[in-house]
Design a protein that fits this description.
By secondary structure, the protein is an alpha/beta fold. The chain has three domains: 8-250, Rossmann fold (3-Layer(aba) Sandwich); 260-371, Rossmann fold, CATH 3.40.50; 459-684, Rossmann fold. Helix content is 30%, strand content 24%. It is built from 19 helices and 27 strands. Helix 7 (165-177) packs antiparallel against helix 8 (235-257), helix 15 crosses helix 16 and helix 16 crosses helix 17 (606-619). The longest helix is centred in the middle third of the chain and has 23 residues, at 235-257. It is elongated, with a radius of gyration of 34 Å. It starts with 13 loop residues before the first helix and ends with a strand. Residues 425-450 are annotated as: Disordered. It comes from Pardalotus punctatus. GO terms for molecular function: methyltransferase activity.
């Protein structure tokens, strides 16, 4: 039996609907949204004494159910199909005396002005607004004008809809321009398999007298999980918010039926501010054999550790899911702008939402475990936040690492998953004569001032490799003597500080384009200038170009550790201009003949990376590369002369000799930092 129209225009035809309802018979046809799902929203806006008009009623049971539960009895139902009106009169006439069914076109209604307190529309607008042709839009305008005419001031037009973008935009624009208050409710799902995957929405348009002039529009959305509406600043933002919820519903439907071939990422936002509160990644492990207890788990990433390889990369999360032994693992990252009430609070907040991401085949009433490292949510304390004209918004925060160590980090919020600079904090030491804290005393608050910066510890693996590259200078068995080192890119200052402190005869010049970073490094990362350490606030491109003209062959080592502000390029370090051939020639000019140029390269674009390497090979006859395991970083050691060529074994021996020279009695040294390990894995390009 063919019930679908031959064209969208037939949805507005009385002949089509007469044929539809004759062929369908007495069985009620619900476009979408059963009464139990719609009732919580309708109950807010329909009062028992209201006079209610239902436009395009069809043979839906909605009016009958509203009547039977006592929500409202004075209900007038209209439709353009004579067949369905006679059918409904027979079905309800004797049992519901206060409710009526009338054959009437909603575009030309016979009711007097301001006759109703509520107009209810379940799918009628969606059926009429099938396209955006001029004739269709004219009918919709006529429909809205008639609804506005028959509604009293303070009355509500309730429209149940799937909220296609053009339908929602048209309704919201029309009524908000008329001065009405517009609120969009998402209808809570019953959890049963529904006819439509997309969620159902109810537009609530409340009539106010139009105020002359430009009165502010009141646009709101009420997601299904909350009663308090969220104010939207524009029609476009409201339409986008609805679209986000539709995409989420489609995603949940897809991953509830089939395993995820690729990791799925989504943000759950704070109800009050609208800012991201949780970032979720859904990771499926096909290799895990499912049993009753290992279908599904949630893993809470401790605060401040979301940038680590295991939690911050696809490969790391895949390894985490496999080692946890669950078929589907949802990792949850916590955002620094938000406050959390411990693991129990997070579990209570997320338990309902994460079940929407459950895998296919999850047994009914299965308890889903919440996992974490050490069973807690970690510690993150924001020490400082500000905005730089060059680097944008940034934060300095202290986080608890794996174990008892604390670290200070600099994060640029334009790329919040990347740690820009990091330093380990020393444990606070008691002052002379100060007694140790007794066990029964109150523990220090996470907001207490931390210990000093541990300048002996290089947190970043690429910094360790860059320092190890200095073994290319000097003799094979000796610490390089007096050194002139240029570092482009300050960050928190840990790289130039380490070179300054451990190479006692090194004179370090640092070039930093952003004066805010010098303030951050000085105030928060223990950086200081002196006779052997000078910072120049300048563009690295201009500074090197000037040196190439005025002071060639000046530096033993030039180190580039400078990030790109342009996130659209597949290379985040350095900016592309720093690896163009004319500029690299200038870098070569300021190096001494036996010097070394050390470059931190972070490039995800394979073609661009190969182009950069080719340019480097054209300029520097000798080129070594050291990949940083688990990271995108690759450290390149470039020398202007091919005569100093060493194989990896020789480089390892030179690195061991350098490390022996740097390890002086009374000077702290991180035992995990083995220079030889940094260089034995190099490739000669």
């Amino acid at each position: 039996m063919e019930l679908l129209p031959r064209s969208p225009g037939e949805f507005g035809s009385a002949r089509y609907w007469d044929r539809f309802f004759r062929q369908r018979g007495q069985r009620p046809f619900e476009w979408y949204g059963a009464f139990p799902e719609l009732c919580p929203v309708l109950h807010k806006y329909v009062r028992p004494r209201d006079k209610v008009l239902v436009v395009g009623c069809g043979n839906s049971e909605l009016s009958e159910q509203m009547y039977d539960v006592g929500m409202c009895e004075d209900i007038v139902n209209i439709d353009i199909s004579d067949a369905v009106i006679r059918q409904m009169q027979e079905r309800s006439g004797s049992t519901r005396p206060k409710m009526s069914y009338l054959l009437m076109d909603m575009l030309h209604m016979d009711f007097p002005d301001a006759h109703f307190q509520v107009v209810l529309d379940k799918g009628t607008l969606d059926a009429l607004l099938t396209d955006e042709e001029a004739a269709t839009l004219a009918k919709v305008d006529q429909m809205f004008a008639e609804i506005s005419r028959v509604l009293q001031v303070g009355g509500r037009y309730l429209c149940v809809s799937l909220a296609q973008a053009h339908v929602l935009k048209k309704a919201v624009e029309y009524f908000s321009q008329e001065g009405w208050v517009v609120r969009v409710h998402q209808v809570a799902s019953s959890g049963d398999k529904q006819q439509f995957v997309l969620p159902v929405f109810v537009y609530v348009m409340t009539k106010f007298r139009k105020i002359p002039g430009s009165a502010p529009q009141i646009l709101e959305i009420c997601p299904e999980e909350q009663d308090k509406p969220m104010r939207m600043e524009s029609v476009e933002r409201l339409v986008a918010a609805v679209k986000d919820r539709q995409h989420y519903a489609l995603l949940c439907s897809q991953i509830s039926k089939t395993p995820c071939r690729e990791q799925v990422s989504l943000d759950l936002c704070d109800k009050e501010s609208g800012k991201p509160r949780y970032t979720l990644h859904v990771v499926d492990s096909p290799s895990v054999k499912p049993s009753r207890d290992n279908h599904f788990a949630i893993f809470i990433i401790p605060q401040g550790r979301e940038t680590e390889w295991l939690f911050g990369t696809e490969e790391g999360r895949r390894q985490l899911a496999a080692s946890a032994g669950f078929g589907r693992l949802v990792t949850v990252a916590l955002h620094r702008e938000q406050h959390y009430e411990g693991m129990a609070g997070i579990q209570a907040e997320l338990s309902g939402k994460v079940m929407e991401l459950a895998p296919p085949g999850l047994p009914a009433r299965q308890q889903v475990p919440f996992l974490s490292v050490g069973g807690d949510i970690g510690v993150r304390t924001v020490r400082h936040c500000d905005t730089s004209p060059l680097s944008g918004e940034y934060v300095v925060e202290d986080v608890k690492g794996d174990g008892a160590c604390y670290f200070r980090r600099l994060i640029f919020l334009r790329n919040r998953n990347v740690v820009q600079s990091e330093a380990r904090l020393l444990a606070p030491t008691p002052l002379p004569g100060q007694k140790k804290r007794r066990k029964d005393k109150k523990k220090p608050s996470p907001t207490e001032p931390p210990g000093a910066i541990d300048k002996s510890y290089l947190c970043c693996e690429h910094h360790k490799a860059m320092v190890a590259g200095l073994c290319l200078l000097g003799g094979p068995d000796a610490l390089p003597g007096e050194l002139a080192v240029l570092v482009v890119g300050l960050g928190g200052g840990s790289l130039p500080l380490f070179v300054h402190d451990y190479f006692s005869q090194a004179h370090v010049a640092v070039v930093e384009i952003d004066p805010s970073m010098l303030e951050v490094a000085t105030h928060w990362f223990g950086f200081s200038q002196g006779r052997r350490m000078q910072v120049h606030i300048s563009d690295g491109l201009d500074y090197v170009a000037k040196l190439a003209t005025e002071a060639p062959a000046q530096y033993d080592a030039v180190m580039f550790d400078v990030d790109s502000k342009d996130l659209t390029v597949g290379m985040s370090c350095p900016p592309p201009a720093f690896v163009e051939e004319p500029f690299l020639q200038k870098v070569k000019t300021i190096l001494k003949p036996e010097g070394v140029f050390v470059l931190n390269l972070v490039c995800r674009d394979a073609r661009l990376k190969e182009s950069v390497l080719a340019t480097l090979r054209d300029v520097f006859p000798l080129l070594y590369a050291r990949r940083i395991e688990g990271e995108v970083n690759e450290i390149l050691f470039c020398q202007p002369s091919p005569e100093g060529r060493h194989d990896p074994t020789e480089l390892g021996a030179r690195a061991r000799a350098l490390e022996g020279a740097l390890r002086q009695p009374g000077r702290p040294w991180d035992s995990s930092y083995v220079l030889a390990d940094m260089l034995q894995a190099v490739q000669i390009l």
